[in-house]
Specification:
Length: about 230
């Protein structure tokens, strides 16, 4: 199965979009290429998915502060075409964009989304986070800390004409206080956590990306046995 990968390091959000656009162009031209998986970390940015909104009513807005204050804190604001509402990226967070051709993989959109989630769930558990579980009301992975479920991984995808873009973000050693700037996936003051906060010793983000990619390749090879999102370790 021909799947290529690229680790881009720390880049701004626009560069991440350009990398995905280039990957999708290659996928459309080369039917033997099943996917291009991009790993990176973003400079400070808040993104709004197709359901995200900025409203005068703070109970309806997905940003908790004014756009001016958001930028004063060092965060750009981008409207995107992925699903979902608000997400925040900053240095120390591993972002993975699997750009895949679902037609050549013989997969539908629902199975693809579930496979990304279950792959990430299994990967986190193998890294030592045995208690990670799937979100019940939103796409995400959570770790119970002192009786509170805290989000450690977020998902947001775009699937168009059988091609995928955007993907997932995993909190590793990033500044979690910045999440107060947004309603994460529509939830105000949603508890979040990270590898560092949980005391999990990790290698570099690039090494984490490579280990996730290895598990992703394995999941694709045996996708029939992975189409579920189980909270059982």
């Amino acid at each position: 199965m021909k799947i290529e990968s690229l680790y881009a390091g720390l880049v701004d959000y626009q560069t991440g979009l350009q990398l995905q656009t280039s990957a999708l162009e290659r996928l459309r031209k080369d039917e033997e290429l099943r996917g291009v998986v991009i790993g990176l970390e973003h400079m400070g940015v808040v993104t709004l998915g197709v359901r995200g909104q900025i409203a005068a009513d703070p109970t309806r807005s997905d940003i908790s502060v004014s756009e001016e204050l958001l930028r004063a804190r060092g965060y750009e604001l981008h409207k995107t075409t992925r699903g979902g509402q608000a997400t925040l990226h900053n240095p120390g967070q591993l972002v993975i964009y699997p750009c895949m051709n679902l037609r050549t993989l013989g997969m539908g959109a629902k199975d693809y989304v579930t496979l990304v989630q279950t792959t990430t769930l299994k990967w986190l558990r193998q890294l030592g986070l045995e208690l990670v579980k799937c979100g019940q009301n939103e796409p995400g992975l959570f770790v119970p800390v002192s009786g509170v479920d805290r989000k450690i991984a977020a998902f947001g995808f775009k699937i168009s004409q059988g091609f995928t873009s955007h993907g997932l973000a995993i909190n590793v050693q990033n500044d979690l206080s910045a999440f107060d700037l947004i309603r994460t996936c529509g939830v105000s003051k949603q508890p979040v956590t990270s590898f560092m906060e949980l005391g999990i010793q990790t290698p570099t983000l690039e090494s984490l990306f490579k280990s996730w990619l290895e598990m992703w390749r394995s999941s694709l090879d045996q996708q029939g046995s992975h189409i579920s999102c189980s909270n059982k370790p």
